[in-house]
């Protein structure tokens, strides 16, 4: 099956959601130029992977972020968001999911690169950690305010 282009995937949503989705896609690529973008139709989202170096876990990319549009809003999510540094306490999802965290955008919102950029960098950093390193990170941050 041929991959679905992100533009075609987003075009199925209302115009204002498509506009935000396109802006978020551009921000991800601006902040993480080597991000690998692909539509994951089974998950109903656009996922972003971070490539690894040749010696890092056989080069398998690490899933770090996604854009999940819905009819009335859109999420920019982070796979290991529960471990991310979030000094502005902007990430949603605590108490809803164990691992994933996200930002929500509604029509008229303008994604702020100054807020989103550091979160993308942090999401990529966490995703590229080994499972053991993520466990250590979780132990270090357990019980501490985010």
Overview of this protein structure:
Helix content is 34%, strand content 20%. The protein has 146 residues and is an alpha+beta fold. A five-stranded antiparallel sheet has the order 1-2-3-4-5. The protein is globular, with a radius of gyration of 15 Å. 29% of the residues are buried.
Descriptive keywords:
single chain; about 150 residues; alpha+beta; five-stranded antiparallel beta sheet; 4 helices
Q: What are the secondary-structure elements, in order, as H or E? A: HHEEEEEHH
What is the alpha-carbon Rg in Å?
15 Å
By DSSP (H or I, 4+ residues per run), the number of helices equals 4
The largest sheet, given as strand count, sense and whether it forms a barrel, is:
5 strands, antiparallel
In terms of DSSP E residues, the strand content is 15-25%
Number of strands: 5
What's the overall geometry?
globular
Question: What is the percent of helical residues?
Answer: 25-40%
Oligomer status: single chain
Within the largest sheet, what's the order of strands?
Answer: 1-2-3-4-5
**Mean model confidence by pLDDT:** 92
Poorly predicted runs are none
Ends: how far apart? 42 Å
Structural class: alpha+beta
């Amino acid at each position: 099956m041929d991959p679905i282009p992100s533009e075609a995937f987003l075009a199925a949503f209302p115009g204002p959601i498509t506009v935000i989705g396109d802006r978020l896609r551009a921000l991800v690529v601006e902040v993480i130029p080597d991000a690998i973008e692909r539509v994951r139709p089974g998950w109903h989202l656009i996922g972003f992977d971070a490539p690894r170096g040749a010696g890092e876990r056989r080069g398998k990319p690490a899933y770090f972020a996604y854009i999940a549009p819905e009819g009335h809003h859109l999420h920019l999510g982070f796979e290991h968001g529960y471990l991310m540094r979030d000094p502005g306490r902007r990430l949603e999802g605590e108490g809803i999911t164990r691992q994933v965290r996200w930002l929500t955008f509604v029509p008229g919102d303008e994604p702020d690169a100054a807020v989103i950029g550091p979160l993308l960098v942090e999401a990529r950093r966490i995703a590229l950690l080994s499972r053991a390193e993520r466990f250590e990170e979780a132990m270090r941050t357990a019980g501490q305010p985010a």
